[in-house]
Amino acid sequence: MEIDGVAPPVPEKPLFEPLKAHEMSDGKVQFRKVSVPPHRYTPLKKAWMEIYSPVYEQMKVDIRMNLKARKVELKTRGDTPDISNLQKCADFVHAFMMGFDVIDAVALLRMDELYVDSFEIKDVKTLKGEHKSRAIGRLSGKGGKTKFSIENATKTRIVLADEKIHILGSFRNIKIARDALCSLILGAPPGKVNSKLRQVTARSAELF
């Protein structure tokens, strides 16, 4: 509100020093545990160093495999720069357990706006027997062609784990990919879904 034609001065924004990790956690060590499904145990052993290096060296978070409990255990260290690093590392390891490649899942450590969304075929439509098998076939396409085209158009990564579907990407792109996958589950032909995808992604590109 102006007084006598003069705008009131804009108050300066307060400046706060960033909190240190030990201040945000009251000086306590924070833990996270990620369960290892039986079918991901062997891939985890093969990719362990690819997972260990970015977590321990870049994010400054301790990581170990608890063989007895079959869990990957993570905890903060004295030199962990940010308490949020612990949750990022847990999300990264969890994404790998879902079936994403390390090279894709590691993006969760480097970018804040990425996350994983999961849903099941039965959440969209109740299908049984051959109908369910055909729906899964439509999602993948011949040689995975349909899945790859959705991934490339929406800049996401998709894992089809039997009846479960996991999508890694940004909020906007996950929504576009999920809508396309839901259309395929409901019976839409892949050609029609791809055509609609091109229209949606073209409109999204124009917004930016």
Automatic annotation (TrEMBL):
GO terms for cellular component: nucleolus. Pfam families: KH_PNO1_2nd (PF22891). Its main location: nucleus. It is found in: Nucleus, Nucleolus. InterPro entries: KH-I_PNO1_first, KH_dom, KH_dom_type_1_sf, KH_PNO1_2nd. Keywords: Nucleus, RNA-binding. Belongs to the PNO1 family. This is K Homology domain-containing protein. It comes from Linum tenue. The lineage of its organism: Eukaryota, Viridiplantae, Streptophyta, Embryophyta, Tracheophyta.
